């Protein structure tokens, strides 16, 4: 443990107006180490990362990078060897891999000088060799999977720093949030390799199993302070969560309600779409059904087929026994189908609107009176709805952007739960949400099931599915290849992972 | 490196419970208040300053003249907000106005009964709205480009209809429709004020008003929440076209003539008023009263400058600079608010 410090943060503080985002935070990351930065949404992790990259100017404190002080505010962090890879990776889909790779290295040339494509290619071939990844440099980025894009972003950052020095600090901000387990594993392997090459790596993630697997040390933040620094080998997952929450949490997931058969609420028969093909399954009132598969295997498309947003090419489905031919989401909603979309910012919320405007959108019509919307009644409803799912602060008049990710997701849940949907579709319901909020959200979904809804959870998080589902359906190239049922140990994280990775022929139609 | 591993225990007190039954207390915020009313306050200060400096401002007739002269722009600015709220543009409204005026005037001149001519004019507005809706909503063309196209095509059409000449001799009925006075104020100004009230009601007090904002804010989320997004967008383009052709009928009465080349003059002023208006009252949202306040602020400012001896070109400079200042202020206010929240 005599490696030099890649990063030393000392007594960093930042407040916005009256609210404190960082309070006396200190942190060290060694070269060659993967360092986990953990904490609930809103604990100050992002502010810390933004301070390092110059997006945020800290009020006090100092930062050393490889032993040399970093001037605040940071200008051009990449010249100091700092690269941040965000969840939102920032690639242009319609351009090729090579064009995307070169952008932050200015294509190795001046503004109006010609780009030496052959030399560019040689540089990246060599770089990928070192990292142990392979890309077709002429492929369009739109053809790559989410995991490949994440790997690409790492490679891109490597090039930039490669030319300057070997003193490198990578900050990966929830890079695996949108990836399935095997894809995430590829990225984690790459991350490890980058660290082994001598760089310091900060890994921000809500997925603690990954942290336990791949990180050397962890810093846990809570309410703007660094509450603990610990070597991963000296701690446990439960202990990390306890530090994040400030209290013990022994169960990360709620228990699904007892289910002993119920009316069939959703029956899918031979449904096909762009990726999904000939999918059949049922979900009953009171039941929690999981749908999983590797990324791109169809579980992203299925919720949109079921909520009327996308047209099926063949087959169909029925809701409560009557055949559903929804041309629009509004028809599906009228039939009792509610979708909590996986991409909240794109499909779920109006981020500049107030919490009240977001949460009451589906029912606003019922608050209309002769002289317009009844404002006080609407405000009261919004406050109740947000209280039911324990949004903090319970301020319907705040813009949605003022809430943390977990609270935004709670607001989206509240928006749909008020309709008492017969079929509740949850697409990656806890993606990017801290464990405390995740458990509360899933608890709300379990309550909906207990009240008679059929809950369908689409997710790549096998641990979660194994914990909360009565049954899980596994998709492979759009087809159902396995169905695992709870009880007698048949539904475990491990079994789900195996089912996902196995080719259809290898699965003995497990039921 | 001290590795503290002391773990909080289960006996920790539970997190504070929020009293969810109590309605949230509305906190009065000076910053928010200032932001909402800065434009209106600026208008008041400007008017008072003008009254003190210029003797002309002490007559009621100057005010009615200013207000009346801007009624067409106010009507167009309000119409512009219909589509702007949805996150799109309808640049074609000014030229729809001129083309409608040209058709109605030409038909009346050819001896067609006025009601029929008016119907033909309104039909033009609906058709323009339908075409814009087809391109933007159905096919998905960028609204700025699509309506710039219809603007240009309509301007050519206006020349065709009028044979590239100014049509004068508009019948008295049209002139009375726009200019006859009620309580000393011409009808066209009343129309604009009625439209203000109607749009205020729809925007502020109805679910439809919220749907339009939501569509402008996040179209996907609105559709997935069951809002009939495409129907509302298409409907809005038709309403926009219809309103523009109604303004066209006011337009020929107001001027008593149709000049086919006048559309360009009316293209950008309404948008300046609408964008400036979005920085007031309902901050960050296109709204009716904000548009009114913005337009009157611009008008008083320009009038004052002209009384100081400025030439007519000053109005365009003033509009342009005011618009740049307004959107800059809105942008800075927005980023300040966004930055105020730790994530």
Automatic annotation (TrEMBL), chain A:
The residues forming the signal peptide are none
**Keyword hit for ATP-binding:** yes
Q: Which CDD domains match?
A: ABC_Carb_Monos_I
- Give UniProt keywords alphabetically: ATP-binding, Cell membrane, Membrane, Nucleotide-binding, Repeat, Sugar transport, Translocase, Transport
- InterPro entries of this UniProt entry? AAA+_ATPase, ABC_carbohydrate_import_ATPase, ABC_transporter-like_ATP-bd, ABC_transporter-like_CS, P-loop_NTPase
* Gene Ontology terms, MF aspect: ATP binding; ATP hydrolysis activity
Matches recorded under SMART domains: AAA (SM00382)
Q: Which residues cross the membrane?
A: none
Gene3D superfamilies per the record?
P-loop containing nucleotide triphosphate hydrolases
Start and end of every ABC transporter domain? 7-248, 247-502
Output the SUPFAM superfamilies linked to this UniProt entry: P-loop containing nucleoside triphosphate hydrolases
Q: What is this protein called?
A: Sugar ABC transporter ATP-binding protein
UniProtKB/TrEMBL annotation, chain B:
Give the GO cellular component terms, alphabetically. Answer: plasma membrane
Q: Which residues cross the membrane?
A: 37-57, 63-84, 114-137, 144-162, 182-203, 234-255, 267-286, 293-311, 317-334
Q: Which species does this protein come from? A: Subtercola boreus
> Which cell locations does it reside in?
Cell membrane
Pfam name, any one: BPD_transp_2
List the residue ranges of the region (Disordered).
Answer: 1-21
Task: List all Low complexity biased stretches.
Answer: 1-10
Q: What is this protein called?
A: Autoinducer 2 import system permease protein LsrD
Q: Does the keyword RNA-binding apply?
A: no
Keyword line: Cell inner membrane, Cell membrane, Membrane, Transmembrane, Transmembrane helix, Transport
